Amino acid sequence: MGKINIGSVQINNGFSGQFYLPYSIGLLQAFIMHNSKNPSKFNFQTTIYKRWLLNECVEKLKTQNIVLFSVYVWNLQISLRIAEEVKKINNDCLIIFGGPSVNDEAENFLKKNNFIDIAVHQEGERTILNILDNYPNLSLEEIPGISYLKNNKFYNNKGLPRLRNFDGCPSPYLSGSFNNLIKENPDEHWLASWETNRGCPFSCTYCDWGSAINSKVARFEMERLYAELEWFSKMKIEFIFCCDANFGMLPRDYDIVQYAAKLKKEKGYPHVLSVQSTKNARERAYKVQKALYDSGLSKSINIAMQATDLHTLEAIKRDNISISDYKELQKRFTADGVPTYVDFIIALPGDTYEKFSTSVSDLISSGQHNRIQFNNLSILPNAEMAKKEYVEKYKLETVKAPIVNMHGSLDETPADNIYETQELVISTKDMPLNDWKKTRIFASTVEFLFFNKILQIPLLLLYAKHPDISFKLIFEKFAEIQNDKNFPCISKINNLFNEHSNNIAKGKAEFIYSDKWLKIYWPPGEFAIIELFSQNQIKDFYKESITILTTLMNDKKYDLIMEEACMLNYHLLKKPMINSNKEIKLHYNIHNFYFDALNGKNTKINSGEFNLKIERTKEPILDWQDWARKVLWYGHRRGNYLYEFSSMKKNLVEKK
Hints:
- The chain is built from 23 helices and 25 strands.
- It has a 7-stranded mixed beta sheet with strand order 4-1-5-6-7-8-9, sandwiched between helices. A 5-stranded mixed beta sheet has the order 2-3-10-13-14, with no helix packed on it. Strands 15-16-17 form a 3-stranded parallel beta sheet.
- The radius of gyration is 27 Å and the shape is globular.
- By secondary structure, it is of the alpha/beta class.
């Protein structure tokens, strides 16, 4: 036969109008062209890399001999529909599916989607080469690492050992796999996925990384990695997402960061190198993450904890990760003025409302003042958590919910109405549905009050003076206010959080969509801020908060201090429609206390006269939409919600 035409689909999400180069498909193409017995017989078409309308995708693929699909949760449904329609038009087209959303136990998957000819498991390079080199005279029973149906009978062939040496695996970037794609889309701004190694020694049950590649780490050569970084710089790739499961695990990772930093300084690119930080190796992790921050390649540092309760960590097979390492890293980064954020997952097996809320409170007490990112637990097809026996053991109950990105837009799902979905856990043996809702509301309350910095100053002050009053108790005091006429603003916010948790439990989106506010999905805490400001209720909210906080403080001599702390917090909040600086006078050095608290220090509250200048014109906010975008959306990860300020005069009188 003549040329073999190969189509491919790896649909990725876009971020701020930028899209990822289809890395998995590029790897396969580079491997085949390097290792095939007759590479000249293959004609690789440019990959469908982003969401088009269904009929457009089918039109592009309908005449291909083979179509490769790389699938994950964010593109599975559209990929299945494309494959089904292509098969209807061209029954001779060989449809091949691979990627993390192809279940290792694929019988039901293939019988439900019988238009798929071959399902490829684990690493695909050698398997796809075997298929293509022998096409069209395929003996499927001789190809390792695949599943297929024959006369409606299911077959699963044993896989190959994992790749340990990448000498025969060319870089898709350096070998030209993406040249045509980039040439055909000159106005596209590209993002890049990047591996420096492959493998993960951990086996966390919620993660398909560990279940898929639980193994020793295999490394790509440094010469290749440096050349790829130079390619990214040359092609002006702003954002690189490093796919390594544990960046910072290897001593050479520091050298990789230094090289990326050198290119950024000399050539301006890349702007960001986003990594999944190693779970252990404390000293090396600190060194690598500090280098990322100092070079500007990272605006904040991720400390991926997920949970701190030992029983929960054991249930998810993460108990071999040192909590003491996390806390030590947090202290060091805080002392260096490096912002960090922590990931926490809601409804992990073994977790309860009490454990979760206590862990959050303890983390804040230990110095995490920038961000805890609360994520809802979803079950991935090849994670251990998806196995029947695991589901039954922990009584996991899920709801099918649409996949939407935080700050993502509604038009991520085009007019063909094909929705991507995920299985969200809303109840477990240890966290029944009502407790799950309570936990979800608690997380929203923490996000809103503390990490969005609405009340961060007075909350830190209250805890400093009354460490017996935990942050958990403070957040619960706010969350328990329901439909109270004395607290209408706080009641309104709590109703919003209640509705949000109920909606998720019914299978609605994880975030709150607003057509009025930028036409994107908002986390509940940020949407609550929008509601208060846009309805001119922000000052009333602070009045209500003062009542709650002074009651908790229960010490009349601190009433004025707490009021002033709330007042300072209000004035420091970045606001819309502001075009002038502001001067305020304090009677206590709360500003010094707050600055030191953020840096892990304890400062006494002194009385006197303290004049502050609040710098509100450095980043002028022109209108409401500009405020929502620049302050709430763009400032999310770094917690950049407050104006800078400077002391004009300080006159110390007495200590409190």
